[in-house]
Amino acid sequence: MKPTGHVVDRLRYRNHSGRLIRQHRALHTIRGGAQSWLHPVLLPLLFTGLLLIGMPYITWLWGRHLEFWNGVIALRGVVHTERHWFGPRLLYEVPYLQLAASPPDFLELSLNGILVCLLMLVSYLLLRRQHLPLVYMVWGLCLIHASALIYFALDTDFPYDIASHTRTGLEMNIALAFLTPWILAFTYYPFAFPMATKIGATVLLLFTLIVSAPFQYMAHAVIIYQFTLVTMPVLFIFGGLLLNVMSFVALYGWVMSWEQVDLSA
Q: Is the pTM of this model over 0.70?
């Protein structure tokens, strides 16, 4: 009888059509070169230093942006700043929009409740199984909004306002900006991309975050002002930091595809 061990060894690396099954890229390892440890150290320090220097100018531009759109839209709000110390010496001012927003009345709570029920019913009846992620997203939005409706129906003493919402949101964007190069230090810089590519990808991620932040929270302010404070929980959870992180992940996936990298080299 002929030994079958070598036949099994050959077949285990073949798929159903006889083609070779290559090792998945997730199982490849990075074999150290100078860039695999030097870039993750130097680039985060470089971008952190640039952010420390530039953050006071960035927050100043954010404030001018809020003032401009506050005047264009005629919201009758006032832009203020709150001072924050980063370490013992660096001072920067976080802008925020002081704008009165009213709690929802009974009619608004009723209409919002009907809308939530309709959205959940429609998503359950009409969306098919392949749209299950969309169903989960719709139900998540509805459940958060329903909890806000219940809260305002029981107690209208809501402890937050547009000023605290915009200030907290911009502060979270500042924190994410400082974290970005350090996140990339573990997830992007060790790979065999050229230094210029790594710098360009980091600038893109930071630029997107910094430029979108004042637009994002001015839009929040307009929505809350027009549709009352009941919209704030949904905006905070789904339209705030979560949206920024999703944008980061999407851009990260794109910059990772800029060049083919041989991880086993």
A: yes
